[in-house]
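Forwarding the complex inputs:
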Amino acid sequence: MSKTFTKSMARNIFYGGSLFFMLLFAALVFDSESSLPDTDNRQAITEEVALGKLVWEQNNCIGCHSLLGEGAYFAPELGNVYTRFGNSTEAIKAFIASRPKEGIPGRRSMPQFNLSEKDLNAVAEFLKYSSGIKNSNWPPNIQG
Amino acid sequence: MNLSRPDNERTSKDAQYLQAATHDRIYPPGDLAIWVFILAELLVFAVFFSAYALTRANNAELFNTCQLTLDANAAFINTLALISSSYFVMRAVAAIREAKTQQCIQWLIAALAMGCVFLIIKSGEYVHHYQAGINLRTNLFYMFYLSLTFFHFMHVIMGMVILTAVTIKTRQGHYSAAEHTGVETGASYWHMVDIIWLILFPLVYIMR
Amino acid sequence: MQYQSQAVAKPYFIAAIGLFVGQILFGLIMGLQYVIGDFLFPEIPFNVARMVHTNLLIVWILFGFMGAAYYLVPEESECELYSPKLALLMFWVFLIAGALTILGYLLVPYATLAEMTGNSLLPTMGREFLEQPTITKIGIVIVALAFLFNLGMTMLKGRKTVITLVLFIGLVGLAVFFLFSFFNPDNLVRDKLYWWFVVHLWVEGVWELILGAILAFVLIKTTGVDREVIEKWLYVIIALALITGIIGTGHHFFWIGLPGYWQWWGSIFSALEPLPFFMMTVFAFNMVNQRRRNHPNQAAVLWALGTSVMAFLGAGVWGFMHTLAPVNYYTHGTQITAAHGHMAFYGAYAMIVLTIISYAMPMLRGRKAANSGKSQILEMWSFWLMTVSMVFITLFLTAAGVLQVYTQRYTDNPQPFMAVQERLELFYWMREAAGVVFLIGLIIYIISFFAGSNEPEQA
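Prediction (whole assembly, three chains):
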């Protein structure tokens, strides 16, 4: 019976199957793209939010925090930090700005990033925008 | 077939028939590799169908209401199309086993034509849904209905690509009464596509 | 060694092992920071240590893949490498670029590094695993192109085998999907969507092709089983890997703002992702059982069997554990994810690179087929120490994750993140202890290269 198991057929299945599922994947991604305006909160993306994303990236926030569950798991989830902090960008800004330079003895502490007022505002606005993304009600509760 | 074969070749042809007869008993038919693939595909569909059944049990009312918006007649015609195409493919295999290359090609083309009928009717249904503003995100029922049928739709296309390749290779004379694993392989895949529809059709269109 | 040009693999393998050591050291630093929060603060904050840990992992695995390709492609193609000089040049380019990047992470604040490298011109930094400055990313693309050119030209002039073909497709895919790392829209949802095109389609897509090809090569060499048989297995395994893995990408699309149907598509297909890994285990054990000879390099056989088992456990079983959407709703972004990541990466990719190094290094160092018995015994000790400690790291992280999910997500009275972290301290200490054992295993691994080098080969 193993005689009828040919290498060329196995190869064809590999190529055909891969192509098939890549096309299917592309079709689903295409459909997702067209549906994004309903969920991705794009109307909230201002220039300030875009700058906030850059500030977020250029300080490697994802190296400790998670955002919508992705990132590191060393520090709290920030996709819902805006709501957790009582729907307040001021609270977010105050927290970031008040981190001690030398840390807290024996405990985890966020570094002091010395952000300018403009960058601070921007990153808070970015986190506010992130909290508005409709992501199937994740995380399960406010604690993230 | 070349009629002017010398006698010694005819003896070897008899031997080929004998071999073909033994070949028939080998199960499963076609290349074993395709069966690994077929089993994997059946597994995917089985999981998908189970998910559908479970979700349906929890949302019976929604599923029953939305089911009424589907065109069961079109789906029924499509069922006939696929069943007949499966029959044609079966005839194609039977033909090549008797070394009737020309007939095999004709049956394969007939099967392909039935596949086209399926694609056209199904596309008509999709256009209708699209115009009604129905998409994958409308609700759970349409998510399943569109996902399952579109996934199957792509399998029909895949099956037709395979059958086309088999037809071309048959025309080029790659298969004989003794060696026609390729035809059996393509036929096996096509039967799978048909069988999945035979489950899908009652499950999604009819069962209430 | 059958072809002179295979020798270029040696520096790649040495660099891989060196960077591996760095990765583990930074892993231990992070592990300690989990329990002693101010350890090395503010000099090496956690985010820097993590970036170094994960980036070193990626770079050493890439060094390993490239070394593997340079070693096996000439042998498979039955001809010398197209240009050993280009391979050597690219080695130094990649090593220096990598070292500079790591130094950049460690010596200046990340924001300064971003400014120095002109990130604002084409912002690509600051996303998980893709933290490299844009200029480093461009460097990676150039190295990859030169590497693929070199391999492609070698393959064109020589014998074409399934193994080189699959390896090449995997490597081309690796390069192609990396291009998505240059796409970084302001829209966070789209950013994440295409970010996964790099990350998922690497580790649960094209890298599996590379893994399969290297494993198949080592099995052909060490078991003497018919190439035809092994190549069929290889095709079926990688076909299944892509059939399940491509749509399986959907298991990352559950909670990032993409349509809800991904919860179904992603769950269904990723639930089947363990299948190819299971087949790989069956494949490896089958081939070794059907072996036609006993290869003197038993350590390499052990690594090959080990990688097939650990890849199945780490990627297959631990992946399945939290891949279904209703489960993932609670486990997403917890220590469960970390547990899975550790065992999957070690089992599938660290171990396959160690497998090919174990197989090839004796020849690259001028032996006929294998190291001395003494060296092999040490290597096997290192195998067991590293593998068992990785199992324990995974188990402790899983325990931490379960407790975290319960207290922070599942109970009626959810606790804040940091309060929960304090309750996990015991597990984090145990993880760190297991990590120290891992480092001991790694040290023994390195010693095994120098022990018994004057003694004759094991027969």
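The first helix of chain B runs from residue 7 to 24.
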